[in-house]
Design goal:
Blueprint (H helix, E strand, L loop, with lengths): L29 E9 L2 E4 L6 E4 L6 E3 L2 H8 L11 H10 L4 E11 L11 E5 L6 E6 L8 E7 L9 E7 L6 E6 L8 H8 L4 E6 L12 E5 L13 E2 L4 H6 L19 E3 L2 H7 L5 H18 L3 E5 L6 H10 L8 E5 L2 E4 L2 E3 L2 H14 L16 E2 L5 H7 L4 E7 L3 E4 L13 H17 L10 H20 L8 H4 E4 L7 H5 L6 E4 L22
Parallel strand pairs: 1-5, 1-14, 14-15, 15-16, 16-20
Antiparallel strand pairs: 2-3, 4-5, 5-13, 6-7, 7-11, 8-9, 8-12, 9-10, 17-18, 17-19, 20-21, 22-23
């Protein structure tokens, strides 16, 4: 502060900074979910009463309620058959979740379930019968029809050109796309139709023979609804690319799991449709492990988020143990695995990750991130895929498989609190507490960059970090009868000597004693002998 820069006599006032730069604890339960949704959704506009078509977002989209999620991706009835994202989000908000970033992976549904939008397909013959022009609409309301007519072009001097006129059942006024050609160029039928009908009509030339410019399509076709029920051996939807590619995504395009790199607020990551696709037979075990490994690597690289993984459906305890052994490379404190699936309706089961994310959020809000999200009831669960016994859990718990169990008169509860690491980061709440504290300190000490690297700076850092950790100790997040027992902060010349300062570094060492969960409660009871007097 330039106090001694005055030139003229007089009384001056200078506002001095208070010196306090409190470190604020960031949110701990901001969910990111990557999941499958329909490529187009039907919504009724309450103002006009008309059906409108929307394309769900494919990049991270913030939602803060179930209603907001449904407005983007549709409700439970509009979830593609066999998928899990919609049910997961329902369970997240039901169990106390409040904030989520959703990354939709669009699929083309074949199930005909709910207010589904379906494409229409038909063909127009050519003048010489050598070619057909296949026309397809974008997905439309099931009650919609499109009438398409083809005839000579508007320019009589160019017989190779043709017009296409179309109308819909809901909008019978005819519209014309003029002077189209089967050849290349700006008026190519495929290019012009898509552009000038706003994607309503798409074209494909089949059985091409001879010179395209000499063939003119003629005739009329009505594109009507077609049956959407899949064959028994056919998936209820189709994907635009390999499932693992779509789920992993692209960081630059902000798609899939990789697209979450740009969202700094995220602290929890789930992908329930990964195991849902396996249940449908569209992914194998190796592919599921590949994507789950990518989720874990993403969380490890970002350092501020935690992956909640689902076990595959249909595995007994021995098979689950084998699955975990095959994923031994996971060994990470940034993820937890849950088993088995939960029953959400009569004989309908869902991966638990969305419901568990809600439990994490509820526990964080009620107790704090230092409390393990375990011995907590799973709201909305009416049963389990498999009832695991105490003895069976004894084989699963040590290898990092958190079991969801049903207890008489206590409901369905999360009965595990372990990460996938067996070392110092084996408890979920310890890993998440450190990530939360590290992020708070990182955000709260940005003011230190480019400050003079001297004792004044060191004292300021010690003061701010000490004040913050004292608050965390008071709320019960750190172990110790006094703050001195709970943590320490070192930032002085003992670790910032001349050589360190010459490199432009300021080093701060922080030690924290976290509160760990009482996983095993053991009452040692013995028979008391009656004492006899001599």
């Amino acid at each position: 502060m330039a106090i001694f820069d005055k030139q003229a006599p007089g009384v001056y006032i200078e506002e001095l900074p208070g010196g306090a730069r409190p470190i604020v604890t960031p949110s701990t339960a901001v969910l990111a979910i990557v999941g499958l949704c329909r490529d187009t959704i039907n919504f009724e506009n309450p103002a006009s009463g008309k059906i409108e078509t929307r394309n769900p977002p494919t990049t991270p989209t913030l939602v803060t309620s179930w209603q907001q999620f449904a407005s983007h991706y549709g409700g439970l009835a509009q979830a593609p058959t066999g998928t899990a994202m919609h049910q997961a989000m329902w369970g997240f908000f039901l169990n106390g979740g409040k904030t989520a970033f959703v990354v939709g992976v669009p699929v083309t549904a074949r199930d005909g379930k709910g207010p589904v939008l379906l494409p229409r397909t038909g063909t127009l013959s050519t003048a010489n019968g050598q070619e057909t022009l296949r026309l397809t609409t974008r997905p439309l309301d099931p009650a919609e029809e499109v009438i398409v007519r083809a005839g000579p072009g508007s320019d009589a001097s160019k017989p190779e050109l043709f017009n296409i006129t179309y109308s819909t059942k809901s909008d019978p006024a005819p519209k014309t796309v003029e002077n189209l050609t089967l050849g290349s160029g700006r008026r190519n039928v495929k290019t012009a139709l898509q552009a000038e009908t706003q994607g309503l009509l798409l074209a494909e030339i089949l059985n091409a023979q001879g010179a395209p410019n000499e063939i003119v399509p003629v005739g009329e076709v009505t594109l009507k609804p077609t049956a959407a029920a899949p064959a028994t051996d056919e998936a209820p939807f189709t994907l635009s690319d390999k499932a693992t590619t779509l789920l992993i995504g692209d960081a630059a395009k902000r798609t899939g799991i990789a697209g979450l790199e740009a969202i700094e607020e995220v602290t929890l990551v789930i992908c329930p449709d990964l195991v849902a696709l396996r249940k449908l037979g569209m992914l194998n075990d190796k592919e599921v492990l590949e994507v789950q490994a990518f989720m874990i690597n993403h969380c490890e690289n970002m350092k501020d988020r935690f992956a909640i993984l689902d076990a595959p459906f249909g595995k007994n305890v021995q098979e689950m143990m084998d699955w975990r052994k095959n994923s031994a490379a996971w060994g990470s404190g940034f993820a937890a695995l849950y088993y088995p699936w939960i029953e959400v309706k009569d004989k309908e089961y869902a991966p638990p990750s969305g419901y568990l994310a809600g439990v994490y959020a509820r526990t964080d809000s009620a107790r704090g991130v230092h409390k393990a999200p375990a011995n907590e009831e799973v709201g909305g669960a009416i049963g389990l895929e498999l009832n695991v016994t105490q003895a069976e859990q004894g084989f699963l718990n040590p290898i990092g498989v958190n079991v969801i169990r049903k207890f008489p008169n206590r409901g369905i509860r999360v009965w595990g609190a372990r990460t996938l690491e067996s070392g110092e980061w084996k408890y979920i709440n310890v890993r998440r507490l450190f990530s939360n504290i590290e992020e708070a300190i990182l955000q709260g000490t940005q003011w230190t960059v480019f400050e003079p690297n001297d004792r004044v700076l060191w004292a300021g850092i010690r003061r701010e970090v000490t004040d913050y950790l004292t608050l965390r100790w008071r709320e019960g997040a750190l172990f110790g009868a006094t703050p001195e027992e709970a943590f320490y902060v070192v930032c002085d010349e003992t670790i910032n000597d001349q050589a360190v300062r010459d490199q432009g570094y300021c080093l701060i060492e922080v030690g924290i004693a976290p509160v760990k969960p009482a996983e095993f409660i053991v009452f040692m009871i013995r028979q008391k002998r009656e004492e006899t007097s001599a």
